[in-house]
Design brief:
The complex is a heterodimer of chains A (245) and B (205). Chain A is an all-alpha fold and 245 residues long. Chain A contains twelve helices and no strands. Helix content of chain B is 80%, strand content 0%. The N terminus of chain B is likely disordered. Classes of the chains: A mainly alpha (245), B mainly alpha (205). At the A-B interface, α3, α5, α7, α8 and α9 of A face α1, α3, α7 and α8 of B.
Chain lengths: 245, 205
């Protein structure tokens, strides 16, 4: 996907916040599903749904309980108020729709192309470098944390109880930080010495290739257009059509 | 000496900034995995504000980058709805850079924990929690409809049921949980700053 199309889709998806209405959200849903499926990101869609489904379910349950009158036990009324066209649950659904587009745009970047893609989306070189570096470091720190946890358990310092975990949280973090800091510093000394690597990247980044699949770019641009038509430009047309139905 | 620091400057700062981001993401994930009732997702932001940059403003800019990118990575790896907590991270970065950094500078330098400094750390942690709760409240109320799926949502539900407005419920829920969490995060961040070798601290200051 071309970085411009990625940026256009991100900006246009913010149109979801122009209208706080269940119908407009329902109209945007096929666009999001279509964008995921037509760009071949069905597994990503599944992953996103697994992440947001618990939040949506908890929100629906909590609002249902809040609206339920325990004296009359009017389940139907509570149900209608929870899923009303302009209910608070709809606010969360709108946020989830927007973030699922952002999720597609960020997670859809091919491996190794984060740096040039972010640069072409307008990020500064420092920002793009820090982002790509941080993404790579997440797994390093995660491994260090897991090793620290295992070491503390193996030495008998930490037991599986909740209290022991709380007491030793500082130890896990301190060991993880020191180990990660040493690795990062050693890497900097050898690979990035005197900004050589950093300068090389700055000089050569313009030539770095970004995968720009035409089909994905077209899908993203069409989805961006639909977002704007559905939520901003064609608002009255959509409302009239829905009204006539 | 100055030339050597300038020569290594951007690289060292980029490395530590990235490390603080990864720390934010991983600590949040660890506490989620071992089911602790805290968030711990701003330790790297606070540490960066105190540790990185030669001036408070530079510290603020870099720690804002740490907070913002951390939550973008959360979106990518953990939970897409966390995107709207980026302003809270920027508020934490501002408070840490302009208030915590100058007030706790002497403690960071000598590491002596007197009773007065201990009280100051606790006080600043509580105020940081209040700042975070106040900044988060409008986003939780109007972007999430009050319910984010965390344990605090139950407090919101109870308050709504007792007749409070949505914004009041979200604010009170945040004010009950955030000060404890942020105090703990401040203590951990200061411990990390103290644990960072002088050589590295000099290269990124």
């Amino acid at each position: 996907m071309h970085p411009f199309a990625r940026l256009a889709l991100a900006v246009s998806s913010s149109a979801l916040f122009f209208k706080h209405d269940l119908i407009h959200l329902a109209l945007s849903l096929p666009i999001i599903f279509g964008a995921y499926l037509l760009t071949g990101k069905a597994r990503l869609l599944l992953m996103c749904m697994k992440m947001v489904a618990p939040v949506l379910v908890i929100s629906a349950i909590v609002w249902f309980v809040v609206y339920l009158d325990f004296r009359t036990l009017d389940f139907g009324g509570a149900w209608l108020r929870t899923f009303d066209r302009t209910s608070h649950f709809v606010e969360l659904a709108r946020t989830v729709e927007f973030t699922s587009v952002i999720f597609l745009l960020l997670r859809g970047i091919p491996d190794g192309e984060i740096l040039p893609t972010l640069r072409r989306m307008g990020a500064t070189h420092f920002l793009a470098t820090v982002f790509a570096n941080a993404e790579a470091q997440v797994s390093t720190i995660s491994d260090s944390a897991l090793q620290s946890y295992t070491a503390l358990r193996a030495q008998g310092i930490m037991s599986p109880t909740w209290l022991s975990k709380c007491k030793n949280l500082g130890r896990i973090i301190a060991v993880t930080w020191t180990a990660s800091l040493n690795v990062a510093d050693a890497r900097r000394e050898t690979k990035w010495r005197h900004n050589g690597f950093y300068s090389h990247q700055t000089a050569n980044l313009e030539r770095a290739a970004v995968s720009t699949n035409r089909w994905e770019t077209s899908v993203a641009l069409v989805a961006a257009l639909f977002f704007i038509v559905t939520n901003v430009a064609g608002l009255e047309i959509v409302e009239n059509v829905l009204g006539s139905l | 000496m100055r030339n050597r620091l300038e020569a290594n400057g951007p690289t060292s700062v980029a490395t530590i900034t990235a490390l603080c981001i990864a720390l934010n993401v991983d600590l949040g994930t660890i506490v989620y995995l071992i089911k602790l009732p805290v968030y711990l997702n701003a330790v790297g932001t606070i540490a960066a504000a105190v540790l990185v940059g030669s001036t408070r403003t530079k510290g603020f800019l870099l720690s804002s980058i740490v907070g913002s990118i951390s939550f973008i990575l959360y979106v990518m790896a953990f939970n897409p709805v966390l995107f709207f907590f980026i302003p809270t991270q920027i508020a934490i970065a501002a408070f840490s850079s302009y208030v915590i950094r100058p007030l706790l500078r002497s403690y960071v330098l000598d590491g002596l924990l007197t009773s007065r400094r201990g009280a100051l750390v606790l006080g600043l942690g509580v105020v940081l929690g209040i700042v975070a709760a106040v900044v988060s409240a409008p986003f939780i109320a109007y972007q999430f409809g009050g319910i984010t799926g965390s344990g605090a949502s139950l407090v919101v539900a109870l308050l709504l049921k007792s007749g409070s407005t949505l914004f009041q419920s979200v604010l009170v829920s945040g004010l009950t949980s955030e000060p404890v969490d942020k105090t703990l995060q401040l203590i951990l961040a200061l411990a990390l700053v103290r644990a960072t070798p002088q050589r590295i601290r000099r290269s990124i200051a």
